[in-house]
Structure formats: C-alpha cells, structure tokens
Design brief:
The chain contains 23 helices and 16 strands. With 585 residues, it is an alpha/beta fold. The protein has 3 domains: 126 residues, 3-Layer(bba) Sandwich (Glucose Oxidase, domain 1), CATH 3.50.30.10; 108 residues, Enzyme I, Chain A, domain 2 (Orthogonal Bundle); 260 residues, TIM Barrel (Alpha-Beta Barrel). β9, α11 and β10 form a beta-alpha-beta unit. The longest helix has 29 residues. It is globular. The chain starts with a strand and ends in a 9-residue tail after the last helix. About 1% of the residues have low confidence.
Amino acid sequence: MHRKIRGLPASPGIVVGRVHLLRWEVPDVRHRIIPDEEVPAEVERFRQAVERAKERLRHVRDRVEAATSHEEAAIFDVQISVLDDQILRGSVEELIGQNLAAEKAFDLVMLEWRQRFARHANAMMRERVGDLTDVHIRVLSLLLELPDHDPVDVPKGADAILVTHDLTPGLTVQLDRETIVGIATDAGTRTSHVAILARSLGLPAVVGLRIATEELQGGERIILDGGTGVLIIEPSDEDIAEYRGRARREAELEHELRQYSALESITPDGVSITLRANVDLPEEAELAATSGADGVGLMRTEFLVVGRANMPDEDEQYRAYKRVLDAFGGKPVVIRTYDIGGDKLPVGGFPTEANPFLGWRAIRMCLDQPDLFRTQLRALLRTAVHGDLRIMLPLIVTLDEVRAARAIMAEAAAELVARGVPHRSDVPLGIMVETPAAALACDLLAGDVAFFSIGTNDLVQYTLAVDRGNANLAARFTPLHPAVLRLIQRTVEVGETASLEVCVCGEMASQPLMAFALLGLGVRQMSVSPRAIALLKRVIRSVPLATATEAVQAAMGLATAAEVERELSQRLHAAVGDTSWLGGE
C-alpha cells in the first residue's frame, strides 16, 4: 500500500525514481570521555578522519569542476585549507589530550571557530562561516560513521530524486544535473530559491513537504508529481502506469504549446504584449533565446556569487553578461545588480540576522560595499557596448538609494575612462518595485529612473507580511489579495503618466490566471521563466484585452483574495472555452 506526502507544487513534471536522501546538517554529538591509554589512538583516529575528509573534498571538487567551472569548484579548495589549518588541528588534539573523544573535541572547536568568524569585523572572514559549517558536518559524519550523502555521488542513470530539508546555494553547486531527475524539500514555497532554481533547470520539484526527510530512509521508489505537489512512496505498478500516462498527456500538451513560441504575443483585439525571459544562469541564455522571448526582462546575477569561495572579478562578470547579450542578438537584456541576502547568500553569507528579508540585502548591501558594487557596474558598462543592456536596481525604497547608485555608476565609468576601456556610460537605469513603499511613492522615483519592474515575489511578501519561503504560511501567500492588485495598478498608472515602461518579472506572471489579472491591470510587459513563454503567448492570444480589463474592474470591488480568484477564474474560463491547457488554474 503506497503512502503519500503532500507538499506544494514548485516545478511541473512527473518523474519516477529512487530517493537520494541528503541530510546536510551538523549532527548531535554526545559528551564522551576516554581513558589516558586511548588518547594516542584517538588522536590518530581524528587525523585519519581529516585525511579522508580532504580526499573526499578533492573528489567533490574535481566532479564539480568537470561539470561547471574552476571558479565554482574553488569553494572546496577553501574547505581543504581549513582542514590543513595547524591551529585548528592543534586545538582539537589538545582537547583529545584532555581525555575528550575526537568527535566531541572537533565539535567544540568548530562551534567556537564558527561563532568567532560570524562575529568578525571583516566581511570576507564572515563569509568563511559556510565553509566551516560544511567542514564541521563532513568530519563529524566520518568520526560518527554516519552515511555519506554527498549530492555529487549519485550513480549515472540512477533516476535519483533528491530529498533534503532545503537546497542551499552551496549544495546547488554540487548537483549533477544528469543524474538528479527531481527535487523534494521539507522547506520552501513556490517563490523560494529552490523552486525558482528547479523551474529554471526544468527539474520537477515539490517543496514544503515538512516531514519528507523524517519519513524517508533513502532508496525508496517514489513518484514525484511537481504539478500537484505530491510524493507517492513505494507506488504499485498500477500507480506508476497511471502517473506515466499523465506524464505523457502533459508532454503532449507541452508539445502542443510549443507551436506558440514562434507566434506574436498579441491579443485577439490587437494589443501587443511584450514577453521577455528571466535568466538565472548565463549558460541558460542560448535556450532562453529560442523560447520565443523578446529579450531578457530579468537576469539574476547573484548566482555568480552564491556557493562561491570568492567574489567574481570584473572580467569574469563581463564574460557572463556578454554571453547573455550575444545569445539575444540585439534584443533588450535587463540585468539586475546583486540581490544578495534574504534566501540568496554567498558562502557563509552574512552574520545571522533575525529577519534577513528585512535586513542587509540587495541595494543596501551594494551601497555599503561600494568596491564590490563598482566592480559589477564596470563589468555591466563594458558589456553594454555589445547590445541593448539595461541595469536594474533591486529593493529600492527611497530616491536617495537611486541617486547613490547613480553616483557609484559614474565613478565606475570614470575608472573605465581612466583605463581606456570601451564602455557605455548612458546605460538605462531602472528599479525593482517590490515593496509597498516603492509602489506608493513611485511617482517620487519616476523622474530619476528609466523604467519600473514589479517584483511580485517580494511585493506580495512585504505587503502581506508573509515569508515567501515559509511552508506554514503558503496558504496565506495570495498574490490576488486586493492590496497587492492595488499596488500593481498604481505602479502601472504612474509609469504610464511618466512614459516609463513597466514590466512584471515575478513568478506571478507565469501563471495563466495571474497573467490574466495583470493584463487587466494594464501591464503590457511580462518577464517569466523561458519555459512559460509559450503558455503565456497562448493566454494572450486567447483573451481579448477588453475581457481582462472588465474582469479586473469587477474583481477590484471584491474584499478577499478568494473572491478575486473565483471572479477572475470564471471569466478566464468563459473567455477561453477549452481550459485543459491552463494547467492548475
């Protein structure tokens, strides 16, 4: 008899595979005293564990470097250097000499080092905390003889479904995308980092499962349905046949939708809508360029730094940005400056913050670290000579931030002039509207920016005070809440008055019902995952703009998100007739 665990649909698709359980957390270590005569053997046991951990890290580094790049693999060289630190090893051996078992001695020393690094005044030292944590987990797992769950060691052709508490950027670096066929996590919501990453990679995913890592032992056969958010454990042959049938029907529908990629995104009543692609990784650009997208509405740049041992230099960034521009052959490419913080942290990230989404992130971090920001801006200004590049600033809440960013951009341009490096200094500078403050005061910002881009993932989060990554609050994360719709409407109206382009680049735009609402709110530009372009074109080509406008006008008079959803859903289904291709709407 099969069992089901229900979570949240994060990335569509149905796969059958075996559980690859990844428990990547510091294990509990009990206090154990050893007699004097065992001390030398215990020291030797510790030294052997360190050598085995170093060998393991070299293996992981080589695998990651072969699959990605030397820069991404460099994180593991840093971790090897931690294990070579003679002060650290000497401290552990000193505690063993005081009759403490090797695992407890190592645990205490690593806890003390991690706390000390987290409090360090130097940001680069604070960034080492993640490396220390990884080393802490790896060596303790060896000393306690726990199973090795490295995500890089999945056998080829294993059809592995990765099950873990949360997929951090550091773990993402290690993923072998040829062997992992699906992702399931206890944590997360549809708009959390892992969900966006899974959709970007085209991997079916279920998040917000809460208990999957407790319920599963590893090796079980499961069905993962990313469209409904369900894991089916030890399914029968009949179950598998049923789900494979559904998977075939979904594949047929996707094939049917693909014909829309090459068509214009124009409504039946003749209104043209601009559809652009969101790009997470430079290597996705070529595929995104074939999706039917009219350029890039959001290139996220934090994936250049998350999971990395060091920040990318100007030349590396220039090459990454140029790759995207080249792929889109002169079409607009909007590149967002670092939105680090919240759920997207570099290795070790920042000191622990009680409310990271309200903390030191995005434009705040960039303005406080002007050297880092200038390096990125120099790379962007250099890239701009190769096409239609536009720069977008995240999490803007005040005009002061825009003007401070402009000043640093002018400094970056002056540095390039001094070096005689070709660049453009007239690159359009726009902002993300993703807080109520920005939406309500966007008229005060309009005179200093070239465009608005509404980031609905964060706008919903900040407007409703609902953590977008909290599975317990997923039902309260309601993009169709009247307050959210009013803020979007205001931003669109201000943009029209100021003759500014207004794009929506959050996940909201990739869902048919939400896109229907956005059309009715006056949005004429959307940027979505490349895989959603064809579906959005079919929606746009099926729904007269007048119908969407009337639907939203009716919905804006309603009091709750549920009422709005019902109203819009009825009108959308009435407009398109056959609704089978709308998916879950």
